[in-house]
């Protein structure tokens, strides 16, 4: 939104520098320009809305309404900080649970892998036995075929 007053307006310049008419700047005496210290408020649950807390308004006296905007902002900031800490804690707990689940799953996979390797070794041994037996049977067949051929030739010559 554009301002109706220009930057060179004498009214504006007097308004902005009126605080420094005594010759003192905030840098000369910073303690005069600091906000008064506030005591921490107890943590209360929040609905998450941006509306000011009505119970906070009921507890404050009339003279504190000038500081009310600042304290409400500080209270919201503090609540947000507490909420963020809780959220981070929950996130760390979720991450920890997930990591534990992954470790459990890894252990199960290792056990299953050992079982499968054992079964594979048994199958290799069985396959080797079947091949050896197959080789023996082929050689015996060759031997028996040779014997049969010899007997057949012998019978043919008689």
Describe this entry's structure for a reader.
By secondary structure, the protein is an all-alpha fold. The chain has a domain at 64-158. The chain has 4 helices and no strands. It has helices spanning 10-17, 30-33, 54-59, 65-157. It is rod-shaped and about 135 Å long. Mean pLDDT is 78; it is low at 15-20.
Share of residues in strands: under 5%
Kindly state the percentage of residues in helix. Answer: over 70%
SS summary, helix count = 4
The count of DSSP E runs of length 2 or more, i.e. the number of strands, is 0
Low-pLDDT ranges: 15-20
Straight-line distance between termini: 129 Å
Helix/strand class: mainly alpha
Choose one word for the global shape: rod-shaped
Largest sheet: none
Q: Could you report the average pLDDT, rounded to the nearest whole number? A: 78
Order of helices and strands: HHHH
Radius of gyration: 46 Å
Pfam family, one: bZIP_1
Organism: Lupinus albus (White lupine)
Region (Disordered): 38-65
Protein name: Putative transcription factor bZIP family
């Amino acid at each position: 939104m554009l301002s109706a007053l220009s930057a060179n307006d004498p009214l504006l310049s007097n308004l902005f520098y009126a605080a420094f008419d005594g010759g003192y700047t905030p840098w000369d005496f910073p303690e005069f320009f600091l906000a008064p210290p506030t005591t921490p408020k107890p943590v209360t649950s929040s609905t998450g809305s941006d509306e000011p807390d009505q119970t906070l308004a009921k507890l404050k006296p009339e003279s504190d309404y000038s500081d009310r905007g600042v304290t409400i902002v500080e209270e919201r900031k503090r609540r947000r900080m507490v909420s963020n800490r809780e959220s981070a804690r929950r996130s760390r707990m979720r991450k920890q649970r997930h990591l534990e689940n992954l470790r459990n799953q890894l252990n199960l996979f290792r056990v299953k892998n050992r079982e499968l390797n054992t079964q594979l070794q048994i199958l290799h041994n069985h396959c080797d036995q079947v091949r050896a037996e197959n080789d023996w049977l082929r050689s015996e067949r060759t031997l028996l075929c040779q014997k049969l051929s010899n007997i057949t030739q012998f019978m043919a010559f008689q």
